[in-house]
UniProtKB/TrEMBL annotation:
Enzyme class: transferase
Cell compartment(s), UniProt: Membrane
Origin superkingdom: Eukaryota
Family classification: Belongs to the KdsB family.
EC number(s) given by UniProt: 2.7.7.38
Signal peptide: none
InterPro entries assigned: Cytidylyl_trans, KdsB, Nucleotide-diphossugar_trans
One example GO MF annotation: 3-deoxy-manno-octulosonate cytidylyltransferase activity
Name by which UniProt lists this protein: 3-deoxy-manno-octulosonate cytidylyltransferase
This protein's GO CC annotations: cytosol; membrane
Pathway the protein contributes to: Nucleotide-sugar biosynthesis; CMP-3-deoxy-D-manno-octulosonate biosynthesis; CMP-3-deoxy-D-manno-octulosonate from 3-deoxy-D-manno-octulosonate and CTP: step 1/1
Amino acid sequence: MGSLSLTANELLFGQCILGKEMRTWERVMLASSLDHVVVATDDERIADCCRGFGADVIMTSESCRNGSERCCEALEKLGKRYDIVVNIQGDEPLIEPEIIDGVVMALQRAPDAVFSTAVTSLKPEDASDTNRVKCVVDNQGYAIYFSRGLIPSNKSGKVNPNYPYLLHLGISGFDSKFLMIYPELPPTPLQLEEDLEQLKVLENGYRMKVIKVDHDAHGVDAPEDVQKIEELMRGRNIQ
């Protein structure tokens, strides 16, 4: 069965998008592959906000170093068995339900993978944005590397307008057994240097399945991103 642990980003608290907070929750509830949806947070303000619209909330400790560790703690506190746990960052208010279902299905169909995620086309203007994580994938659809810098990089050091660069989306699917051992794996040099938790998975030799989707992605990484999100939502008639 599938479970979702929605990691609430503190930046979203107080940042209303078209008059509402935690827009990501609405998108997640439309996915068909999830049996249980939970908000995992260490912030009582976020918890109160989410309980106000009926969300199931699990309080986690402030010591969680990333969303994966927060999901692990939430799973332990739930005390229920799930085959797959999906972590969706709270700063993805435009995440498509079909992408969530695709990430779950990709992990179900790849028994040699312990992790699944999604990528989409990178916009040229986001090439140098370190908040936009880039990804390279092999011919079988498994992740090779993630970086805050532009990858691949060519000899000119410039963006190649003809190359299909990939942008990583804020969603991760875990085999639940692997998720429980993830916090016990020691931090790796690449993970620490890039500050990307996906790299600890790859650097320890585990496989990660990646699906490519058509998604006009824009997370809320800074308060000024809210206006951009609202414009996109109006354009799609999402109220």
